[in-house]
Amino acid sequence: MPWTAGDGTTFPMYKFKALSNPVVLKTSTQTITWGDAKRWPLFAGPDIVEDEGLVLEIGQELKKITTENNIPWVLKCSFDKANRTSGKSFRGHGVKESLAILARVKAKLGCPVLTDVHETIQMDAVAEVADVIQIPAFLCRQTDLLVAAAATQKVIHIKKGQFLAPWDMKSVVEKMKAAGNDKILLCERGTTFGYNRLVNDMMALVDMRALGVPVIMDASHSTQLPGASGVASGGRSDMIPVLAKAAMAVGVDGLFIETHPRPDQALCDGPSSLPLHEMSDLVKTLNQLWLTHQ
User: Fold this and answer.
1) Residue 268 domain boundaries
2) β-strand 3-4 against 10-11: which pairing, if any?
3) Are 235 and 223 spatial neighbours (Cβ–Cβ below 8 Å)?
């Protein structure tokens, strides 16, 4: 039977199928669609711009893997990490330099780019480079930030706050649409459970998709142990394949995975980054799971 939430929203029996309003990204080289249940795009890349060579190295390998498996791919990489646990932690090379690096890598690889934004003042500069703008989980209820992101008319990837129920994202969706942008992707990245721990409720994927927008599973940050090491977040990268496969079995419109050739040396979120050499086999497995919905 359908379930009705406290605010009156009704959630029907779940079957993974095409949404009535898929989200489309058109670039000079390709068209990527979320929500049509035909293919699953992958957001993947390093957590942050450490240096141009590293971003390019990771991007070249991801392009090879996704091309071989006929999977649409968007390079994911943050230009700044404004929410590091410690003020002494690496957070990037500054807005101008890091965005310039992403622009050059984007041009060399011929791929679209996703990066996140933390303040309205950054929006114009980010929109010049990013094809998909990401709203961090901590900021998903910041109305001014959402409205500014909507105004860019870019595809907007909004992470569900660790402190919110999935149906609470209905208000976030409504804010975006009221601001004139319905190119919305919602992202599941875990829910706070006590101290230094996140848990994933796979039913959240179903409940958020029932809001009529595509849903992405962030299999990397869902494995985080926030602040667990005192000056930085810990993580369980060994659980990334587990969560990614579970989400794909449920039925989602895309995956988000951070990867690094040497996670133990990564300057940010290494413990929740999948070793780059494991990406190929995981992508092939995820593709096989995807086909069970066809």
Assistant:
1) 36-291
2) antiparallel
3) yes
Residue 14 lies in a domain: no
CA dist 122 and 169 (Å) reads 24
Q: What is the mean pLDDT of residues 236-260?
A: 97
- Inside any domain, residue 156: yes
CATH number of the domain to which 182 belongs: 3.20.20.70
Strand partners, 34: 23
Instruction: Please list the residues that pair with 199 across neighbouring strands.
Output: 191
The residue with tokens 């890091």 is: 98
Cα separation, 244 vs 110, whole angstroms: 26
pTM of the model: 0.92
Domain membership flag for residue 11: no
Domain membership of residue 3 (yes or no) is no
Q: Which two tokens stand for residue 31?
A: 């068209």
Q: What does the alpha-carbon distance between residue 231 and residue 84 come to, in Å, rounded to a whole number?
A: 9
* CA 43 – CA 253 distance, rounded (Å): 11
80 falls in which pLDDT band (50, 70, 90)? Answer: confident
What's the domain count of the chain?
1
Q: Does residue 89 have a pLDDT over 70? A: no
